[in-house]
Design brief:
single chain; signal; Lipoprotein; mainly beta; 1 helix
């Protein structure tokens, strides 16, 4: 017995979905640049002498300043995807991450301002050596 309406095969549905997503992303411009995004900041009180910084491979600049706390500034731009953001200080470890999940086009960068005199290890590599 034949049906009057043809059934689509799974491969055809996947191909149609892929073409639709590609076309939609092409129309969105997909040009993302964190340096053009509006920055957001968060500060953390800190009295330690050494800081471990985990960046999850997000571009991060570390700067020694006359601050008494730690200031993290983030620039983030996305054309598609679901954003995830982490910036937390637990003990002597500052964990920062920002990016997109799913079919995503995004860009992020951070600047971490630390008090002069503390030693900073960024992703396992000594970045700033404490000097007062």
């Amino acid at each position: 017995m034949f049906s009057a309406t043809p059934t689509k095969r799974p491969a055809a549905l996947i191909a149609t979905a892929a073409v639709t997503v590609t076309a939609a992303l092409g129309l969105s411009g997909c040009s993302v640049d964190a340096s053009k995004a509006k920055p957001t900041s968060k500060t953390f009180p800190y009295t330690g002498s050494a800081l471990k910084l985990t960046t999850h491979e997000v571009a991060t600049k570390v700067v020694a300043t006359d601050r008494k706390d730690i200031k993290v500034t983030r620039w983030f731009d996305a054309a598609a995807g679901t954003e995830h953001l982490v910036w937390r200080l637990t003990g002597d470890t500052l964990d920062i991450d920002s990016g997109c999940n799913g079919i995503a086009f995004c860009d992020a960068k951070f600047k971490v301002e630390v008090p002069k005199g503390i030693t900073v290890t960024k992703d396992g590599t000594k970045t700033l050596e404490g000097r007062r």
